[in-house]
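User: I'm preparing a small set of examples for a lab meeting where we compare how different chains pack in three dimensions. I only have the primary sequence for this one, and I'd like the structure in C-alpha cell form so I can line it up with the others. Please keep the answer compact; I'll paste it straight into my notes.
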Amino acid sequence: MVSATVKLPTLDLAQINQQLENAEALSLVEWSAATFGDHLVMSTSFGIQAAVMLHLVTKVVPKIPVIWIDTGYLPQETYQFAEQLTQRLELNLHVYQSPISPARMEALHGKLWEQDDIEAFNLYDQIRKVEPMQRALKELRATAWLAGLRKDQTEHRQNLTRVEQQESLYKIYPILDWNARDIYQYLTAYDLPYHPYFDLGYVTVGDWHSSRPLTADDTDGRDTRFRGLKQECGLHLPQTAGEEESLNSSSL
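Assistant: Understood. Below is the C-alpha cell output for the 252-residue chain.
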C-alpha cells in the first residue's frame, strides 16, 4: 500500500542555493538531513563511481533509505558490486523493479534496445526505470532526494543548481561541481572500490545491452550508453509538461 503523501516544505531555492553555493559536499548532506529528516532518501545505480555518494551520505545519515532500481538487465558484476557495497557500508537498501517482467515486456514490445528509435529507448526507460522510481519515492514518503549527478556528465546537468524542485520533491546534488579528479581522490582516501567494469574500459555502466567500453572515437563518455542516441535515462528529467526537458528529448 502506498503511504499518504507528505506535505512538501516551502523553501526559497534562490536564497538557499546562494547560501550553499560554496558549501562542501558533506555540509550539503548535513543541511539536507537537518531540513528533511526522515523524508530524505538517496538513489544509486551501483555504477562505476557509486561508492563515493554511498559513503559520503551514509557517513552523515547511516540508515538513509537507498533506492536501487533493478531493471532486470544489469550485468552480473553489477549485482555482485551491489552486494559488496551493501555489506561493507551496511546500506538500508530498498530495491524496486517494474511490475512488468523482462519476458512480458519483450513479448509485448520486442527488444526495445535493438530498435533504432529514440521512442523505443524512452518506453524502455519508462517501464523499467522511471515508473519504479516514482513508486519508490511515493512509498518511502520522500520529500527530498539526494543524487550523485555532476555537471560534467551531460548537457542537461550543466544547468542544474545544487538544490532544485522537481515535481513534488526536492533534489539535492552534493557532488554537482566535482570532476573526475575529485572522485578519484575520494575513492583513494577511503579505499573505496570502482565498479569492476572500470578495468574493462567503461566510464559509465547501466544495462548490459546498452553500455559499452569507451573507444578512441568517442568524444563524450555518455556516448557509450544507449548507442549514443541519448544521454539521460529519464530518472533525472522533469516529468511535467512545460518544464525544461522531456523524456522525448534526444539531445540529452
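A couple of notes for your slides: The chain has one domain: 13-228. The longest strand covers residues 40-44.

User: Perfect, thanks.
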